[in-house]
Amino acid sequence: MDTKINFLIIGGYSCGNFGDEIILRSLVQNISKTFEYPKIKILPFFSNKKFILHNLEEVFTAEPIQLFRAIDQSDVVIFGGGGVIQELSKRKSILRGVIKNLEIALMLDKKCILLGVGAGPINTQHAKKLTKFYLDRVNLITTRDKKSYDFLRDIGVKNKKLYITSDLSFCLDIPKNKIVTGTDINKNSKVGISIINLYRNKLLNKDEYDRFRDTFVDFCRWVIDECKVDLYLFPFQIGHEGDLVECEYLRERINSNKVVIVDTANLYNFLSSFNKMDYFVAMRYHSVLLSIIFKKPFMAISYHPKVISMMEENSLSQYLIRTDDSIIRYQKVFNLVIKNLEQFSNNLREILVQEKKKANSNFVYLANLIDKLKTTENKTSFFKYNFRCIYFFILIVEYYMHRLKKFLKRRFFEK
User: Fold this and answer.
1) Which end of the chain is more exposed for a tag (fewer CB within 10 A), N or C?
2) d(CA 203, CA 307)
3) Are 199 and 206 in contact (CB under 8 A)?
């Protein structure tokens, strides 16, 4: 394509989550392949410079003027991958950030696209109605699995440009010179583990999570003692209250010199370490995807519907365990992984081919849509222009009222 296009990619980037950073790199890589000399900017929901894992141009989202200008200067606004259409609780609502940015982008007549997203759960009727209202007005939606597609249809989304694809991670072209292969001097088999604090993330209550922790620690000790392996803990989220704290806790509880926490300083070092594993116990969704990408036999822990969906859609349910399963079930599934090693590896090769094909269709839909949109002229009415000005004024007032409220709270109520 010969027309230069300004893309603004919005998502949960720059907060130290390796899954989201893989999605971002895949997006940038494939947009650059599909369009000639695109200009790409990133607008993260929660940016933290300490945890930035990329070198792309970012927009500082806290200032409404910069946010408004960034969206206004773009041609296409993409909400790129991840579980952006969900509301686990009022405190952990990614959906609010999506709705706020969608509202501004649609008001500015921008082409809005949700690409390879996960949807659900949304707990309140108000949030479901808001989601339906805005998603019916975007130009394109692709979901990473069938459950997300069904969820959007169930809450009433009638957008005709809604398709099932796959996670954008499957499109990432990983340079071979960036991934270190080969074996270490230590000849023990290596088992990788990803874990998430389900209590802190409001997915289990305290008692349920304590029981899960105890079972998981016992399982890890059994794997080390009975299977003669080394354990490598992969913290996929290194930001605030991330997986690193949980990995350190797990290492302390297991109390063995055969437990190592993987270095998180660089994405490709992280992926190289993943590629050296023989097996994987995958809890984080993107550890399941990377197990498929690197063709590593694995068992998955079903902490979220997206994990269950990925396993069921690829006929891997026999390798899925629940958080309330007994240690006997853990041992049984792990032995099944080892026993069916060759068959499992062959299945993963077939699954990878299918998932890559579905994931690449995200960019086919995107290219086709932009080809059609290029032929239509966008005219803004006088009413819409004035409405933008009023909305922008409200946005600025709201921002400074929020700052004033925080200042007064610190000044008078937190002494």
Assistant:
1) C
2) 14
3) yes
End-to-end C-alpha distance for the chain, whole angstroms = 60
d(CA 326, CA 322): 9
3-state DSSP assignment of residue 265: coil
Q: Quote the CA–CA distance of 23 and 307 in Å, as a whole number.
A: 17
CA–CA separation, 111 vs 330, rounded Å? 47
| Residue among 7, 135, 5 nearest 70 (CA) | 7
Q: What DSSP string runs through 36-80?
A: SS-EEEEEESS--GGG----S-B--TTSHHHHHHHHHT-SEEEEE
Query: Is the CB of residue 190 less than 8 Å from the CB of residue 46?
Result: no
Rounded alpha-carbon distances, angstroms, from residue 37 to 6, 162, 279, 346:
9, 28, 40, 39
Give the 3-state secondary structure of residue 237.
Answer: strand
**CA–CA distance from 358 to each of 146, 161, 273, 274, 305 (Å)?**
12, 16, 27, 24, 20
pLDDT in tens, the chain (415 residues): 456 899 999 988 867 789 998 999 999 999 999 998 899 988 887 655 544 555 565 555 556 777 888 888 899 999 988 888 987 655 556 788 888 889 889 888 899 999 999 998 898 898 999 999 999 999 999 999 999 999 999 999 999 999 999 999 999 998 877 776 655 545 789 999 999 999 888 889 999 999 999 999 999 999 999 998 999 999 998 866 679 999 999 999 999 999 999 988 788 889 999 999 999 999 999 999 999 999 999 999 999 889 999 999 999 999 999 999 999 999 999 999 999 888 999 999 999 999 999 999 999 999 999 988 766 555 555 555 566 667 666 666 766 676 777 777 777 766 5
Q: Are 191 and 281 in contact, with CB atoms under 8 Å apart?
A: yes
- Confidence (pTM): 0.89
- DSSP type of residue 263: P
* Strand partners of residue 191: 231, 279
Q: Which residues of 302-311 are buried (b: 16+ CB within 10 A; e: fewer)?
A: bbbbbbbbbb
